[in-house]
Here is the input.
Amino acid sequence: HATVTQASSPSQRPKRADGIPDLYVIGFQEVDTSVQSALLLETKRAQQWEQVIRESIAGATGGSCKFVKVALRQMGGTLLAIFAKESVARHISE
Here is the structure.
């Protein structure tokens, strides 16, 4: 059982040296409710969302560091995407 706590004010939150988070974990609900999405691990819509997420991360970071996909999982209508800094990704496994 894991507990996540959040600092009450931004000044209490730990700061990254470059100001960019190590991970982006993004979840979507009701992405694809087709029968195909229930049977396949990845659909064309998941690939489209992956591209949108990649572009959004690049825009948010100014392209200053490379992020790689750690996981992209779809189950029914939900989609979970995890992207990590390249320097951190090698330390992550399923």
